[in-house]
Amino acid sequence: MRLRKQELGDRNLVGHRVELVRKKKGMKQKELLAQLQVNGVDMNASGLSKLEGQIRFVTDVELVALADILEVSVDYLLGRE
User: Fold this and answer.
1) From CA 4, how far away is CA 50, in angstroms rounded?
2) pLDDT by residue (tens digit) across 3-53?
3) Pairwise CA distance, residues 34 & 40, whole Å
4) How many domains is the chain partitioned into structurally?
5) CA triplet 73, 34, 1: central angle to 5 degrees?
6) Is the pLDDT of residue 57 over 60?
7) In CATH, what number is assigned to the domain containing residue 47?
8) In-domain check, residue 7
9) Helix (H), strand (E) at residue 69
10) The pTM is what?
11) Sequence-separated (6 or more) residues with CB below 8 Å from residue 23
């Protein structure tokens, strides 16, 4: 497992929770990317890494897809529950 080289950013609220849930489910980034594509979200590995590192903004469409794939609520990803 590679460690993050950059400090966490402040461009989204969901990145940290996406990473936590993904790892808890034993899902690799590559698997999450494949599921995102199945759900109509075109994202590359760099984009997902930046999203998880809170360096990249997340769109509403991505947020909904991530919540569905990870089987959590949008409110959870936003830190509201």
Assistant:
1) 10
2) 656 678 899 999 999 999 999 999 999 999 999 999 999 999 999 999 999
3) 10
4) 1
5) 85
6) yes
7) 1.10.260.40
8) no
9) helix 60-70
10) 0.90
11) none
